[in-house]
Backbone:
């Protein structure tokens, strides 16, 4: 339903409504994804702020090479990387108030508690994983994206990822999680 509403709004040239639909419709899922990938509610909120701003500013240029959902996760993944790597984090600058920020705050206020509860169950195992591994796990298992969609989300600076290589990385990741789970039970 979100895809349809966004597509209709974009066809009408109403990017503000389309962006609001993306943030409200996919926001809770994206926030939970960010919380799992970043392992910190504060970092997830910061990344979600980036996500909301970038959706608001960039959706009008959406070219339809993927679904809006995949595009939203791509934006979220980029926001997660930015939060991890950027000097912005050290300065703790906040975005100025805008419509996107108000919509993001709405989603954060309603979805933060649910997202944190959802993330706690597997946090101990996931905490041993690298951010790329956590992203792969969440996108494939929790969000049920196809390998093609995951490759689109996680591609690095225009370099396409091979779907077969992603599947192999996922198999190795499952083996790693199995070892970690066995170690947690015996340790």
Residues:
């Amino acid at each position: 339903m979100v895809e349809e509403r966004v597509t209709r709004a974009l066809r009408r040239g109403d990017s503000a409504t389309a962006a609001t639909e993306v943030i409200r419709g996919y926001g809770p899922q994206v926030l939970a994804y960010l919380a799992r990938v970043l392992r910190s509610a504060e970092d997830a909120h910061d990344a979600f702020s980036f996500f909301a701003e970038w959706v608001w500013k960039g959706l009008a240029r959406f070219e339809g090479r993927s679904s809006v959902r995949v595009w939203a996760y791509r934006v979220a993944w980029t926001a997660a990387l930015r939060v991890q790597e950027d000097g912005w984090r050290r300065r703790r600058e906040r975005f100025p108030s805008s419509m996107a920020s108000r919509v993001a705050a709405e989603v954060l206020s309603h979805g933060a508690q649910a997202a944190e509860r959802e993330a706690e169950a597997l946090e101990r195992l996931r905490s041993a994983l690298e951010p790329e591994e956590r992203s792969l796990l969440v996108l494939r298992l929790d969000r049920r994206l196809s390998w093609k969609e995951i490759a689109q989300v996680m591609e690095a600076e225009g370099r396409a990822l091979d779907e077969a290589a992603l599947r192999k990385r996922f198999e190795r990741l499952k083996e790693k999680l199995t070892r970690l789970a066995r170690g947690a039970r015996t340790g």
